[in-house]
Amino acid sequence: MQYRQLGRTDLNVSLIGLGTMTWGRQNTQEEGFEQMDYALTQGINFWVYGFNG
After folding, report:
1. Where are the domains of the chain?
2. Where is the signal peptide (predicted)?
């Protein structure tokens, strides 16, 4: 996984993010956990949550 520095911070975020806005409507909780686990094993650390997250 490739990472980029986040602004002027010391944080590095993955170039690929995991979007979660539609979770709860399009998948089960179990499927969501599986997707999060997979993303973590792939090095994804940038997650985007939905409205009123």
Report:
1. 3-48
2. none
CA angle 31, 43, 9 (to 5 degrees): 120
pLDDT tens sequence across 6-37: 999 999 999 999 998 888 788 899 999 999 99
- Determine the Cα angle at 36 with ends 32 and 40, to 5°: 170
Rounded (10°) CA dihedral 33, 35, 40, 43 = -170
Phi, psi of 40 (to 5 degrees): -65, -40
Cα dihedral sign, 8-9-12-14: negative
User: For residue 46, what are the β-bridge partners?
Assistant: 17
* pLDDT the model gives residue 22: 82
